[in-house]
Every structure is written in C-alpha cells, then in structure tokens.
Amino acid sequence: MFSLAKNSALGEDLDWERNVKPPPVITEEVSQSIEELIMKRISEGHFDDVQKVNKLPSKAPREMKELVEHHKLLYPTVF
Questions:
Q1: Which of 1, 32, 47, 74 sees the fewest Cβ atoms within 10 Å?
Q2: What digits encode the pLDDT tens for the residues 5-19?
Q3: Residue 45 and residue 28: Cα distance in Å, rounded?
Q4: CA distance 36 to 58
Q5: Contact between 68 and 61 (Cβ < 8 Å)
Q6: Torsion angle, CA of 66/69/74/78, rounded to 10 degrees?
Q7: Residue 35 in contact with residue 42, Cβ under 8 Å?
Q8: d(C-alpha 69, C-alpha 75), whole Å
Q9: CA of 69: how far to CAs of 50, 59, 63, 64, in Å?
C-alpha cells in the first residue's frame, strides 16, 4: 500500500490563487445605464443582428459533383 508522509502536501487543503474576474455587481445605476443604452440603440435603429454562418457542404467533393450533375439533368434551365 501507499502511505503519505506526515507533513505531505497531499494531505493539505491548499488555497489556490485563481485569476478569475469577479462577477459584476448589479446595482441600480448599472441597470439604469444598460436600459439607457438599449433605448438609445432602439431609437437609432442600431440592432446587432446575428450574422449567419454559411454552412459547409456535408458531402464529399465527388458526391457534390454527382449531385450537381444529377440536378443538371433534372433541371436543365436552372444551370
């Protein structure tokens, strides 16, 4: 079996320093400034719309080529 030395650090509850930013304290002033920012953006028509990411093709290149050729046969006026 394995035994710990009497003064081993493994038996200690160490308090590690963490470089984590503390959460913000939400006060009445903070809430008011956020509300004012929201109202200003709405009145200016400035909306931060989410930009959609183009989806990558889910098929391998050869399969995509075959798919396009198949569609060309079915819908010749589109291509």
A1: 1
A2: 555 666 666 666 777
A3: 26
A4: 44
A5: no
A6: 130
A7: no
A8: 10
A9: 34, 14, 10, 9
